[in-house]
Structures are given as C-alpha cells and as structure tokens.
Amino acid sequence: MRVGLIVNPIAGMGGSVGLKGTDGDAYTKALELGAIRMSHFAAKRALSSIRPDIEFTSARYMGSDVLDYLSIPHEVIDTASKDTCGSDTKKIAKMMEKNCDLIMFCGGDGTARDILDAVGTSVPVLGIPAGVKMYSSVFATTPEDVANIVHGFATGYVKVTGRDVMDINEEDHRNGILSAKFYGCLNVPYLPTAVQDCKGIYEGNNENEEIDEVAEYIVSTMEDDTLYVIGPGSTAGRIMERIGLDHTLLGIDAVFGGTAVGTNLNEKGLLDLVGRYERTVLILGIIGKQGFFLGRGNKELTPAVIRKIGADNIVLVSGLTKLNDLKELHVDTGDPQLDQELKGYRKVVFRYARERLVKVT
Q1: Which among 32, 34, 170, 239 could bridge 215 via Cys, Cβ 3.0 to 4.6 Å?
Q2: Pairwise CA distance, residues 301 & 284, whole Å
C-alpha cells in the first residue's frame, strides 16, 4: 500500500502562546511570541510504529524530513515553499490523488479543509492531530492510534466511511465567538475509539440547569488559599459567572481568593502564575461527543504546565446530558508519558455534589 504524507509545519504553533490557531498572519505572531513547530513531533509519534512494508510518498518541507528522520524510505514528489501555506497542501494532495491508496495529513481543521478542497472523496484520507482546534471527525484520537488504523486499512480490516470536516472562524475565535461550520465530508478509514468524533454542541434548559448546579457546587468548595485555573468553554465559564467575574470563553483564566489574577493566559503566563502559589487546582470542561479534556482547544495547558499543577489537582466538570453521551474520556497533551499518567478513572462533577467515575483511555 502506498501512503502520501503531508505535514503542515505550522499547524498547532499558536496553541501554547494563546493564539487559538495559525491561520492568516497568526503564524508570524506565533513566531514572535516564541512558538515552536509542533506538527513534526506529532508526525514522528504517528509513524514510529508503522510497518516497513508501507510505501510512502511526500514532499520536501512538508513530510519528507520526518520520514528521513525516522529512516523510512520514500519517494519525494515535490518541494514545497519554506513558508508553506494552504496552496502547498492542496497542490501536493492533488499530486498524490492518483498514485496513493491513502493520504495521511498532519495538521488541524484548516489543513483538513485544504485536503477536502483538493481531493474531496476521491481518495481515503486520515488526519494526524496536530492543530489547535480539531472539531472535525477525520482525525485519529491520538498520533499513536494512526499505525493501527493504517495497518487495519492495508489488510482490509478497517473500512472507509464518510466523516465530517468542521472549522471555525479563527478571528472570531480569538474574540471569544465560537461559530463552527460544516464544510463537507472526507472518506476516512474508521476504527472505533481510534478515530475521534466531531465536537458536539449542547443547548437547552436541561443543560443550563445542570451546568448551573455544577458551578454552584464548585464555587462552594473553593478555598481561599488555593489558585484556581479555569479552562475554556461554557461550563467552566459558568463557574466564573457564579463567582462574579468575567470569563474568557475560549481562553484560560485564574482566580485566587475570589479575585481574577490572570485572564486569557498562555503557557508562559500560566507557568509564571502557578509558580507563585503553594497549591493550584485546574478546572476543565469536557468537549462534547469527543470526550477530550486536554489536547483540544486548550493547548496553552502544555505538559510543563500540567506537571507543575499536578495530575491529582485536575477537576473535571460537565453537564449530565453531555456526560451521558460519552463512554470514555481522552487526553492528547503531546507527551505520551504524561498521557499515560493521566489515564485511569477520573471523577466528573455533573450536578450539585454529584460525581461519576469515567475511564480515561
């Protein structure tokens, strides 16, 4: 089987520095803020267990260097520009369309849209998760899941099915407005639990009532000598509202003694702030349908930040309706060892003083 590999070298760079993505001129700003390239690490993780009988095709600056690093033989079909953009992804995908059995791309929702524009459903594709926002259902759950999917597809065990490509407006996202849109479908080798679902949206009176109870309970348990880092999302935001503080809907805030001590924090800001306090508690919501609480939409919470806070100091919150749709939870921090440490059973607060144990896989 021949696989075409496309690595978007700038995907995910905006996450740790709090830019929510790298579309448009955000890439330049991410570099100015000290962001590092992350997609190559994800691609290396995905390919490290790939079978030697899989043949690869790639392009210079967009995957060939990863294959070289792993000493995986491959055909080089093109050279992308060093300052890559969506047009490079589309051009290379189009070149792979006729000669590859599968196109594997490493990036986020924006890269998935470029692949959709270039090849549509003419060839199966699989996403290696490396972006900041990944609402589409075309990505492996973690990079380590890729090899099992590819091997199953090569042997005929894993079948192809249509999966949704979703994306949001990054400029709106940075301004606290979440507007997701459906763009189309890609054909993806689908292995349950190894391929993520689309983000689910939950609204209605029941959901609001459940979240209000969660917020009331969390606030009632807060201690004056503890720093509370509040993650993004409407559930965590309701906790801030209950305290009487503004919340960065799509960012990370911090509270101490009922007072805001940090807003829309990036990795550097979090590390500096957490270091000033004896104890920190991290409060995180869960992404509907997908089940992620780390690694999707909160990349400011890097492995360094999580380790500094401590895995035992993470509190998960969710409305009951959302929680009932989940069989398991997921993490994808970018650090496989940390991911392993976070696995097991975790409590999720879903009503006032009510918790459920849910497995993290």
Answers
A1: 239
A2: 11
Beta strands in 49-90 (DSSP E): 55-60, 74-79
Which 3 state secondary structure label does DSSP give 128?
strand
Count the helices and strands in the chain (H runs, E runs): 13, 16
Tell me the torsion sign for CA atoms 246, 329, 66, 190.
negative
The CA-atom distances, in angstroms, between 58 and each of 66, 76, 111, 123, 192 are 10, 5, 16, 16, 28
| 3 state DSSP class of 174 | helix
**Per-residue CA distances from 319 to 206, 212, 335 (Å):** 9, 9, 28
pTM of the model: 0.87
User: Is the model's pLDDT at 17 over the cut of 50?
Assistant: no
Q: pLDDT at position 170, please?
A: 55
Q: Are 294 and 256 in contact (CB under 8 A)?
A: no
Question: What is the 3 state secondary structure string of 218-257?
Answer: HHHHCCCCCEEEECCCHHHHHHHHHHCCCCCCCCCEEEEC
Shortest CA distance to 228 belongs to which of 275, 287, 279?
279
Please state, in angstroms and rounded to a whole number, the distance separating the CA atoms of residues 182 and 136: 9
What average pLDDT does this structure show over 302-307? 96
Residue 222 CA to residue 213 CA, distance in Å, equals: 15
pLDDT tens column, 133-162: 789 999 999 999 999 999 999 999 999 999
pLDDT of residue 33: 45
User: Cβ distance 281 to 315 under 8 Å?
Assistant: yes
